[in-house]
Amino acid sequence: QVQVTESGGGSVQDGGSLRLTCQLSGRILSSSILGWFRQAPGKERQFVALTRYRGGSDIYADSVKGRFTISREGLRNTMYLQMNSLKPEDTATYYCAIGSQYTTNISPYNHWGQGTQVTVAS
After folding, report:
1. 83: phi > 0 → left, psi -120 to 50 → alpha, else beta; which?
2. What pLDDT is stored for residue 13 in this prediction?
3. pLDDT, tens digit, 9 for 90 and up, residues 20-70
4. How far is it, in rounded angstroms, from Cα 49 to Cα 68?
5. Are the C-beta atoms of residues 60 and 72 closer than 8 Å to each other?
6. Residue 13 belongs to what H/E stretch?
């Protein structure tokens, strides 16, 4: 059974940094896509970044490009989201997900973690 677990959220000041961790377990197809999404209160869940399970071909949302970096550590089956220059508008619950298609759309992502809260104070 595939499991996805996020950690690393917290509260930081405007301009601060955080690194989120996504621990993967279970039988994951090598063709899978790994994604980060976020959801602010009262808003829809939105795409943040993705990478291939095999690594590479990263895509970022325009709102985080140049500030966030997605990465993989294959031996530990772990994915990271390094978030720098955080802004108050980055405040949201961040989710890690595994999908079957190389897309920024949410629907093909069928394994989700419980989310980790990120709060950026102004």
Report:
1. beta
2. 98
3. 999 999 999 999 999 999 999 999 999 999 999 988 899 999 999 999 999
4. 8
5. no
6. strand 10-13
